[in-house]
Amino acid sequence: MDIMYFAWVRERIGLPKETVETQAATVSDLVAELVAREDRYAAAFADITALRVALDQELSDFDAPLAGVREVAFFPPMTGG
Amino acid sequence: MDIMYFAWVRERIGLPKETVETQAATVSDLVAELVAREDRYAAAFADITALRVALDQELSDFDAPLAGVREVAFFPPMTGG
Amino acid sequence: MIVRVQENLFDAGAELNSFAKNQPTVGAIVTFTGLVRDVAGGLQGMEIEHYPGMTAKAIEAIAADAQNRWSLADVLVIHRYGTLHATDPIMMVATASKHRADAFAAADFLMDYLKSRAPFWKKETTGDGASWVAAKDDDEEALNRWS
Amino acid sequence: MIVRVQENLFDAGAELNSFAKNQPTVGAIVTFTGLVRDVAGGLQGMEIEHYPGMTAKAIEAIAADAQNRWSLADVLVIHRYGTLHATDPIMMVATASKHRADAFAAADFLMDYLKSRAPFWKKETTGDGASWVAAKDDDEEALNRWS
Fold it and tell me: So which residues are the signal peptide here (chains A, B) (predicted)?
C-alpha cells in the first residue's frame, strides 16, 4: 500500500511517499502502526483532529476500512483558494 | 420647474424635457395637472404604480412635496445592470 | 472608488487587471460583467437610455453604501449607455477585499442596487421590433436581502 | 467545464475575456481572483504544494456539483501550484449564467469548496521564516451554508 504525506505532515515524517506492508483494517489502525514505528510518525500523528485522510484520492475519514485501498494520503486541512 | 421624461414615458409624451409653471403642492398634484392637459399625458400617467419619480435627481415618491424642487423626472422602473 | 458612465466599449479583462494591480495587500477580487445577451431570433441591437444628471451620483451613493457595509479596499463600477450589440459588455462591477466573503457580498449587493436603483433603461430591437425591457419583480425583491 | 491546475502564471483579464467570448447567450459572468497578498514585513514568496493525483479530480467534482445546483452555461477553475510571488494570481473561478443570482451563488460556492476541499497547501516565507498557512475555522463553517 502506498502512503503519501503532504505539507507539514510530509516535513515531520521526512518523506513524501512510502510503500508499506500492512494488515491494518482501518485508517486508525494504520496510524497506530505508523506511530509505533518511530518518533517522527508519533510527532506527525500526535493530533489526529488536525489531519485529513484521502483513500485512493477521495477524502475519507479515520474510521474507514482499508480493504482494497491502494493509496492512502495524510495531510493537514487544505488551504487552497 | 423642469420636468424630464425617460424611456417609454418620454416616448408617450413625445418629448424629453419641458419647463412648466405650476403651483402643484405635491408630485401627485403635478401629475393631475399634466393629465388634465392632453391625452398623451393621460396615456403616460395612466398607471402611476408603473412609474418612478426623482426630485432634483434623487428617487422620491408621488406624495412628496414640490416646494423648492427645480427638476422633476418621471420614468419606468430602472433596468440597468 | 471608481465610477465610469460611458458610451464607449470597454475591455472587461483589461479592467480586471488594472483594478487588481492597484491592490497589493488584498487577496480577493470579485467581478461581475453583464453582457448583451443574444436572443432567439437575433438581437439587432440594444439602446440604453440614462439620466445624465443623476446616473453617476446614484451609482456613487450605492458604491459608498457598499463600502460602509463591508470591508473593501476598492470598488469599480462601469456602466455603458447608447447603442450596444449582442455580446458587448454592458457593465461591470469589481470589488477588492482581504476577505472573499466581503468581496462577494459587496459585488452581489452592488448588482442588485444598480439593477433597480441606477437610472438606466434598456430597449431591445429584434426581428419583432423594438421594446423596452420590463423590470422584474424578482429584481425588486432581491433588494430585501440587504435590509 | 474547464479545470486547469498549473505552475505557470496566468493572466486573469485574458481568462475573463476568453471565457466571456464563448458565452453569446449568457448575460452574467462572475469571477473570483485570489491574489498572493503582500504581508506586513514583506512576503518573500509563497509555495503551494498539491496532490497531483487528486487535485484535478477533486476540482472537477466540485465544479460538477455547482453545475447540478445552479443553471450555469459554463464554469472555469484555474489553480496554481509551485512558487508564487506577492501580487501574483493564485487562482481564479469564473461562472457564466443567464441569471446573475446563479452566477454569484455558484462562484461563491466554488470558492468555499476549493478553499477547504481541494488538496492545496500554502506555505509563506517572510522575514520571520517559512510557515504553513493554517486553515481557518471560518472556512469550514462556510461550507455549512450550502448543505
Answer: none
The answer to whether D135 and A8 are in contact (CB under 8 A) is no
Amino acid at D120: F
- Which residue on chain C is closest to B81 by alpha carbon? C115
Q: What CATH number does residue B40 fall under?
A: 3.10.20.30
- Provide mean pLDDT across the span D40-47: 85
* More confident of the two residues C38 and D29: D29
Residue C52 to residue C69: CA distance in whole angstroms: 27
Do the domain assignments include residue B81?
Answer: no
Chain D contact probe: residue of C39, C100, C138, C146 with most D CBs at under 10 A: C100
pLDDT mean across residues, chain D: 95
d(CA C111, CA C92): 9
Q: What's the complex ipTM?
A: 0.95
Find the residue in C nearest to B51 (Cα): C135
Which residue matches cell numbers 510527532? A43
What is Dmax (Cα atoms) for chain B? Answer: 37
Q: Is residue D144 part of a domain?
A: no
Is the residue at C103 inside a domain? yes
**Residue B57 belongs to a domain:** yes
- Residue pair B19/B5 in contact (Cβ under 8 Å)? The answer is no
